Amino acid sequence: MKNMVRGLSENGGVIFCGVDATEMVRTAQELHKTSATCSAALGRLLTAASMMGMMLKEKDDTLTLRIEGGGSAGTLIAVSDGMGIVKGCVTNPLADAPAKENGHLDVGAIVGNDGLLTVIRDGKAQKAPAIGQVPLVSGEIAEDITSYYATSEQIPTVCALGVLVNPDLTVRCAGGYLLQLLPGATDAEITQLEHNLSVMPSVTHMLDNGKTPEDMMHMLMEGFNPNVLDEHNVSYRCDCSEERTKTILKSLGKQELTRLRDEDPVCQVECHFCNKTYTFDLNDILAELPKEEVDAE
Ligand code: ZN
């Protein structure tokens, strides 16, 4: 069984996407050595990015979520491709805060709510990236995503995201869902959905009790006869490579590369998303620059 499920109500008016992001968030925690609260913050953002990425038109398009809320975690970034494959990073992975009174991790405390959620969609078919921004509501992330859809895209959306962390900081489970209402929903349908939502347990409670994204869909869309549209396997995977890193270095141009070479010919570039380090001899990079560019400068 795959870890992301998308579904549609029988009448086509309600769409659902749900994901069991446990493995994805585990990988992120292991790579970035995040604190419990930071695992929850980055994990929620990655989960949302994966679902929103799956809605992109082309599989090579990218969706980036960036949160700058002024909290101790700093900036959080999650990037997804059109198949829900994600990577992410956070400025201060060790940022932490005492749990809330109800025992929940206080994500809003380390993310902050004085800033913006930025959503960037980019793809080959576009001349320039499409950028949307909304002020943060709470820094709890799910509410901020809901607010983004309501204000920036005028789509009534329910978003739930959850990450449960074990006492030893490993990720116990993680996941989420997005539910969107297409135009034309009746009052009776909205009332039914509100009822379904009011009795929905938390995402982590459901996952921890063995429920699947498809189970979540049936609970959330009770009375709507939902059908599974498609299923996918999503995960955390960085797409960096020596070739790509080289291309980025080359884009600095001859002048800047010469300046860096004169400082130190050995250049190390670390990927923020997977911590892989690439080492180059800048003399080699300079020698590989296109001939015309060398002549032009
Ligand atoms: Zn990487």
How would you portray this structure in words?
The protein is α+β, with helices and mostly antiparallel strands and 297 residues long. 35% of the residues lie in helices and 27% in strands. It has helices spanning 22-32, 36-54, 107-111, 142-152, 187-198, 203-208, 213-220, 242-250, 253-263, 282-288, 291-296, and strands spanning 4-8, 14-20, 62-68, 75-81, 86-90, 116-122, 130-135, 157-165, 171-181, 227-232, 266-270, 277-281. A hairpin with a 6-residue loop joins strand 11 (266-270) and strand 12 (277-281). Helix 1 (22-32) packs across helix 2 and helix 9 runs antiparallel to helix 10 (282-288). Zinc ion binds at residues 238, 240, 271, 273-274, 276.
Question: What can be said about this structure in brief?
Answer:
The chain is of the alpha+beta class. The chain has helices at 22-32, 36-54, 107-111, 142-152, 187-198, 203-208, 213-220, 242-250, 253-263, 282-288, 291-296, and strands at residues 4-8, 14-20, 62-68, 75-81, 86-90, 116-122, 130-135, 157-165, 171-181, 227-232, 266-270, 277-281. The N and C termini lie far apart (56 Å).
